[in-house]
Amino acid sequence: MAASTLLKFAWLEVTGFCNESCDHCYADSSPQGTHGTMTVEDWKRTIDQLTGMGVTDVQFIGGEPTLYPHLRELINYAHVAGLAIEVFSNLTHIKDHLWDAFSEFDIKLATSYYSASAQDHDKVTNLRGSHRRTRRNIEKALSLGIPLRGGVVAVNTQQRVHEAAEDLTALGVEQVGRDRTRAFGRASRGATPTIADLCGHCGYEKCAIGPTGDVWPCVLGRFLRIGNVLETPLSEIWGGARMTDVLAEITAVHGEGAQSCTPPQFLPMCGPCGPCPPSVGHCDPKEAAAQAKTATIAAPA
């Protein structure tokens, strides 16, 4: 299965450092996180390998990618390589040179938005003032004509997530995604991660590369390591024996055909798809008959 699947998209998790410390963060990112061991040149070599394999889209993610000191350089490099680029940011810390890069290189943005209430939003992020800054920068991105999509993450019952989605729409955000909570990272409360809590689309035309060079079939599936770009060329990791074994494990749990659609909030090149009416807000075929009560998105903490 792995060898016959083309790689089209990659998450590039350039840092585990984040100014927020959300209790539900799947990546365990926080102010105690680091930029890992991948150098700028390592990331450039990885981008070269991705383009050589036919990848068309990448998403810079973290942690908080805008806090990675070489983000603009990597955005420029990926743009010159011909890749479509999205940056998934909490939008609390965007410096002028990054706004310039977002406009110059036709960058798309994505963010998580936890509540229309500043108090409730900040309670999730554990960062006072994060709601004000995120909301202000959503408005700024839209005023600059930068495409932006949002994801509402239901972490607790006090959030009023429907109002949050309505607030994003009122601001002018055209795509607002949701998905059920998946127990990874801090959201697992110490529980061992399981394949059953993945959506089942892992490794299908996509992979994730972390700040230490580890390669995963998905940013949420980091417990399913399939290789490391500092040790092995990505072309050998993709479709290799370890990946084949991992995809077989995923298929054994989710069944054949689970990869037929992908939640649009996870992949920037996807739009809303047929099985999922807008009222559902997620793209899990097994759950398309009922709206999830809780939600998450592949986003920085």
From TrEMBL:
Radical SAM core domain sequence ranges: 1-205
PROSITE patterns hit by this protein: RADICAL_SAM (PS51918)
UniProt KW keywords: Iron, Iron-sulfur, Metal-binding, S-adenosyl-L-methionine
Kinase is among the record's keywords: no
The protein, known as: Radical SAM core domain-containing protein
The organism of origin for this protein: Streptomyces kronopolitis
High-level lineage: Bacteria, Bacillati, Actinomycetota, Actinomycetes, Kitasatosporales
